[in-house]
Specification:
The chain is of the alpha+beta class. It contains five helices and seven strands. The termini are far apart. The relative contact order is 0.11. Bound molecules: adenosine-5'-diphosphate. The site of adenosine-5'-diphosphate has 23 residues, from helix 4 and helix 5. This is histidine kinase. It comes from Azospirillum thermophilum.
Length: about 260
Amino acid sequence: ARDVTLRHEAELRLMESTRALEDALRRQKELNETQRKFVAMVSHEFRTPLAIIDGAAQLVLRHGARMGPGTVRDHQETIRAAVARARHLIETTLAAASLDAGAIRFTPGPVDLHRMLEELVAQRASLSKDHRIALRIEDGLPVIQGDQRLLHQVFNNLLSNAAKYSPAGGGIEVTARPDRNGAVVEVSDHGVGIPEDEQGKVFERFFRASTSAGIPGTGLGLNVAKELVAMHGGDIALASGGGTTTFQVRLPLAAPRR
Ligand code: ADP
């Protein structure tokens, strides 16, 4: 009887280690897949703005002397826009890498969402006149405890997506209101939208909806935003349909102690 028990134990242990090995192999495979997607994204997305900058700079260098001032300015603006795109790419990629490394510093302090959203909306309006952005702040919006820099990144990302995925001339609405135990911020646009069967995946790393084909992007921003909001003890949700796409961020008055 003792032999049988021993054999039984040995079998159990063998099964356990097989399962652990299978788990490790699966995780390794997932990691390889993530790395493959990452390299594909970086090589595609980073090359485009660099090629644009290179092309415009060469044109001005070679033919600048014979160009009218308007044409030179057009090329300079092309360069500036491509630099902004490259910078956004680098920042999003670095943020994702820092999250992976557990190297994001959360520095809590009072966050005046009203002021932050006002600044973000003004900034975006000065960058481009393509969209009309309406900001509505409801009475009683509380000052919350959070990390100013990280929340700025979250809302900047949502606003930049709203502009990127909707046509010039389209309206964007940003609203903030008090909630039972915190604040709710919503960013809505009337652009390409996200098909219902893809909505569950938009917060996954590298996922890009079928409606975003031809529009540059990394598929990293919303994943980063979700993690940053989670660090605040909040959550982010999406509703898209009937021509309107809304991202909703709920933030508690203060992040739970970690
Ligand atoms: P990306 O750099 O591709 O914009 P994000 O992580 O910010 O990456 O978004 C992931 C995907 O979600 C996008 O590729 C796009 O398909 C979809 N998406 C995000 N915001 C919007 C929006 N406002 N309207 C339509 N689709 C959106």
